[in-house]
Amino acid sequence: MCYFFDLAISNKRYILYYNIILTMISIIVNGFQLFVNYIVAIIVAIVLGLTLRLPLLPEKPIRFSWTTSALFPTPIFAIGILAIFYSLNIFWIYDGLVIAVIVGAFSAIFVKYLFDYIFPNPQGGSE
Amino acid sequence: MDLIIGLIIATIISWLNFVIVDTFLGLPEAPGVKGAKTVGYYIKNRKGNLAGGFFQGNILCSPDASAGTLMASIGVYILGIQGGLIAALLVYIGNRLCADSGYAGTTGALTMTLLIFIFSFVGITPEMFICGMVIAIFTIQGIHHPTSSILLGKIAKSFGRYTNYE
Fold first, then answer.
1. In a domain, A5, yes or no
2. Which end of chain B is more exposed for a tag (fewer CB within 10 A), N or C?
């Protein structure tokens, strides 16, 4: 309440508080936008992975399975690569939403077609 | 928060995070690579527990939830929450290069990122988690292998993840 008292008596302080509140709102909105972007990337990755006929889950028992699926590791690639883009301050248009869609699509295609070539399944080591 | 108290709490959280995730995802059940098998039987010969030995061999031979926890702490320290997500990706790539299917490391990194985010509201900073994780891994791998392997074996038994190897 005392803030509002101060606002009434000092114009300079009013501007200062106004700026602080605006900054906080922008942080909350930007944080929410980033959160939405990550969710979009995960959804695009999973849906495209399923359309490319990746299985939804690895074969059982899951904890010893080597098969790639739509739920693992496709979203891990999507959010990891997206986080690299955002940490480098690359947002492009629509606050990074377009990059989120592109990265999600890329990670699904990568896991489907390139994954086994880059990270081959070890033949001799696993028992 | 006071540094020492924060460090103790961070150590306990990191310890619980990596031991629970690793045990649940089957590290004590089977050695992923030959090195882990060697370590497990060596610890058993020194009056340790075989399941705990496999656990220690597996976290020695490939980046599992222990490495995930540490790398997520470092990632959050450097880049914020996004650093934790990058750490999860890097741990997964490291897992695949070490002939590991990668569930434990990735899950550990993501849960640790979430835990650091939650406990940042209490005042525990990421650097406390980095130091706490080093202390936590020291209690498992650094002090006395047979004793810690017996403890890990008991935890594995309570999770239903005990090894079938003899």
1. no
2. C
Helix (H) or strand (E) holding B126: helix B126-141
**Predicted local confidence at residue A9, as pLDDT:** 53
Residue B106 touches partner A, C-beta closer than 8 Å: yes
Answer yes or no: do A119 and B97 touch at CB < 8 A: yes
CA distance A59 to A68: 9
Does residue A50 sit within a domain?
yes
Residue A86 DSSP SS3:
helix
Domain assignment present for A87: yes
- Would the CB atoms of A64 and B101 count as touching at under 8 Å? yes
Task: For residues B118 and B98, give the distance between their C-alpha atoms in angstroms, rounded to a whole number.
Answer: 31
Are the beta carbons of B101 and A76 separated by less than 8 Å?
Answer: no
Asked if pLDDT for residue A4 goes beyond 60, the answer is no
DSSP single-letter state for residue A73: B
pLDDT range class, residue A66, cuts 50, 70, 90: confident
Burial of B72 (0-12, 13-18, 19+ CB in 10 A): buried
pLDDT at B163: 81
Residue numbers of the domain that contains A99: 33-118
Task: Please compute the mean of the pLDDT values over residues B20-48 and round it to a whole number.
Answer: 86
Q: How far apart are CA A115 and CA A107, in angstroms?
A: 10
Q: Do A63 and B86 touch (CB under 8 A)?
A: no
Number of domains in chain A: 1
Question: Is 0.90 exceeded by the ipTM?
Answer: no
